[in-house]
Amino acid sequence: MQDLVIPVAETIFWTAFIYTAYVYIGYPVLLVAWRKLLPWPVRKRYQEPTVSIVIAMHDESRHVHSRLRNCLELDYPANRLQVIVSLDAPTDGTTELVQYFADRNVDIVFSPVRRGKSAALNAGVAKATGEIILFGDARQRFEKGIVREMVANFADESVGAVSGELLILDAQGRESAYWRYEKMIRALESDIHSLPGATGAIYAIRRELFKPLPPKVVLDDVMIPMRIVLQGKRSIFDAAARAYDTASETPEKEFKRKRRTLAGNYQLLFEMPELLSPWRNPISIQFYSHKIGRLFVPYCLVAFFVSNLFLHSPFYLMVLASQVLWYGAACAGWMVSKYDLHHPASPNQARTSEPCLQRSEG
After folding, report:
1. Mind listing the pLDDT tens digit of every residue in the chain (362 residues)?
2. Please, which residues bridge with residue 106 across strands?
3. Own/partner pairs for 69-72, CB < 8 Å, 24+ apart?
4. Residue 96 belongs to what H/E stretch?
5. CB-CB contact of 92 with 61 (8 Å)
6. To 5 degrees, how large is the angle CA 119–CA 125–CA 130?
7. What residue ranges do the domains of the chain occupy?
């Protein structure tokens, strides 16, 4: 029996390792080589088509004024820029705050019944008159020149969707290494054809390519660009078009966001099975490697750890010890963050931590 267990465990161990290494290391290396051999640059040219900014809001009273002021102060002709706020049954006074901007070139779409973001976006786009639709979220801030940078890409007829660069900064004004890595991947994918999705806080499309979203879609920023790719256009990344956001206040909030994204990817496969077909999806390699590949990484990590328990040579024991230390450090960090959240060190910290809890519950 032992003669069978060891070979099986080694096979599982190395299969899981190679798969995970490809997703996070091999795939970027493939993209670098692909871009060197077959680059596809975007022919960007500055222009001034009509643009509609669509922002869906539910309970966003804390962000309304800063968000809409930011949109109205963008460096773009006011007579060619429409700002649309699609309200999804707010309960915290968001409606009254948005009304303040009703006479300042802001159009309001209101639903008295909570229908979800996808329905709110559908209603907002139905109100849009611009040739280009620019989607944004309620919390982030656009750089002043963002519209000019985004629409310049649409001078290239091959481009159907453009994702801007979102800078997610912590309290010290720094970005996480993982988010910088993720944006590097998107830039490489864009340089060879298209990225399989967009950044929800900052992406634009040609209005004629939009198709209404099904109810309760979680990842509109993947479904909309991928529908456009399936129509024969490109979905590209432009680092010159920037928006700013703050990092999640708590690990729980970040975990909730990641869980939502994971569920959204499974939902996307159910809604758009054609994405799995290499004959229908022109960026099937990118989609499988970037989107599908990451869905199976957690299972590979479990298989990697469990198979390692059956392997006892010095090399495998060293790898096992490294895994135990790695997961132990992660658990310790999570416990420390939980303790700091519920036992702030000072009265001032206690006063600032309570809103964070309320935000995470929302």
Report:
1. 556 888 999 999 999 999 999 999 999 999 999 999 999 999 999 999 999 999 999 999 999 999 999 999 999 999 999 999 999 999 999 999 999 888 788 999 999 999 999 999 999 999 999 999 999 999 899 999 999 999 999 999 999 999 999 999 887 888 889 899 999 999 999 999 999 999 999 999 999 999 999 988 999 999 999 999 999 999 999 999 999 998 766 667 777 777 788 888 889 999 999 999 999 999 999 999 999 999 999 999 999 999 999 999 999 999 999 999 999 988 887 787 666 555 655 444 444 433 332 333 33
2. 83
3. 70/141, 70/142, 71/106, 71/136, 71/142, 72/101, 72/104, 72/105, 72/106
4. helix 94-99
5. yes
6. 170
7. 51-248, 312-361
Instruction: Give dist(CA 246, CA 139) in Å, integer.
Output: 9
Q: What is the dihedral of CA 246, 296, 22, 17, to 10 degrees?
A: 110
CB 145 within 8 A of CB 202: no
Q: Going edge to edge, which strands form the sheet with 51-57? A: 106-111, 81-88, 51-57, 132-136, 202-206, 159-169, 234-246, 141-142
pTM: 0.86
**Distance separating alpha carbons of residues 307 and 323, to the nearest angstrom:** 12
Q: What CA dihedral angle connects 196, 152, 134 and 73, to 10 degrees? A: 140
By the 10 Å C-beta count (0-12 exposed, 13-18 middle, 19+ buried), 251 is classed as middle
What's the rounded Cα separation, in Å, for the pair 278 and 291? Answer: 14
With a CB cutoff of 8 Å and minimum separation 6, the contacts of 148 are 46, 48, 75, 76
Tokens read off for 191? 């340089």
Fold held by 51-248: Spore Coat Polysaccharide Biosynthesis Protein SpsA; Chain A (3.90.550)
